[in-house]
User: What shape does this take?
Amino acid sequence: MVGVHSAVSVITTKRDGEELGDDQIDWVVDAFTRGEVADYQMAALAMAILCRGMNRREIARWTRAMIESGQRMDFGDLPRPTVDKHSTGGVGDKITLPLAPLVAACGVAVPQLSGRGLGHTGGTLDKLESIPGWKADVSVPRMREMLADPAIGAVVCAAGADLAPADKRLYALRDVTGTVESIPLIASSIMSKKIAEGTAALVLDVKVGSGAFMKDIDDARELARTMVELGTDAGVRTVALLTGMDTPLGRTAGNALEVAESVAVLAGGGPADVVELTVALAREMLAQAGIHDIDPAEALADGRAMDHWRAMIAAQGGDPDAPLPRAKQIEVVKAEQSGTLTRLDAMGVGLAAWRLGAGRAKQGDPVQFGAGVEMHAKPGDSVTAGQPLLTLHTNTPEAIPAALEALHGAYVIGSEPGTVPPIVLERIAL
Ligand code: URA
Assistant: This one.
């Protein structure tokens, strides 16, 4: 009963707006990992943290306790510098797919532990799993081999069970208790995994807008600054870009659709916004690795990034030449009038893709690899009445009405001249 008593005192300390001591934080995270603090107690504490916040010392200590709940990886002995990128999640965010091989092609090792999608935002592993044969599970010795191999240099895989296990349990709990949207909890969750992963440097892509966790630029700034501080204090060179997520990235949202678009980018084409963000993040990653004399735009255009993509996919069992899965049914949404597309809402498109089968309702559900939304116009584009605006892809045609409902009001055609929303909004560094 000592543990229960202590859990109550930790919860009431935070509930009453007081600071948690280092010993309280260490104890509660450790006892939760061991199962001594019950899920309902941790959920109550997460709600108290969401309502009352945590200061810089508390967040740093919480992050440290989450890291120490499991094993730390170390790639410090590799012959090349390591840099990772993490996005806080958005709609159509396939940037890791072209970015990891691009940065590897420029001489940096990219150990990228990624996640699966939940809700309206997609997950990198779900996208890559749409490539026939590709496997998300890679052992640490194999990761090391791939990172050290100059022809590969990047690995995108699932985190092992012993990487910040306290975060895995806590995140699943937050997801079902309305406690995801807390800056201290998001920052410590992301940074505990990234610091435990053993990367020397990190570039954060903090999304802001309707399709992101952070709807508001001030909140995004605070989240970015908190994460940059956590990384820097832990000895990981960390910088963040705030990037727009009012409208989806690129022209596809959905697993195989996004892989095809990423391959187009690696082949030197693809949508301008995906190319712009990929190159901007690659520049930041190279700078963090101390490389200033290589232009990633060239490595993308001349096929070097594509070579690394093919090697990286093949090294994880995938066939880079295999046809990608396609959905059985499509439904085309046409423009009702001519004009300029002035709005295409990321949340509406993300929700539609999810309902079509691209995402999952709960952890462990299967996804439809071919499902999603193809966007034939983006904000700023001129459209003509009757032209296809969106194509919905699904194996479950009964989902189409719900997807159409999600898109209701999500796009607006106006008469004013088009403006293209900016991608990179701000850079945050200490
Ligand atoms: N991603 C994470 O890993 N953790 C959060 O809390 C939110 C997004």
About this structure: The first strand starts at residue 83 and ends at 87. Residues 329-414 form a domain with the Aldehyde Oxidoreductase; domain 3 fold (CATH 3.90.1170.30). The two ends are 44 Å apart (CA to CA). The mean pLDDT is 95.
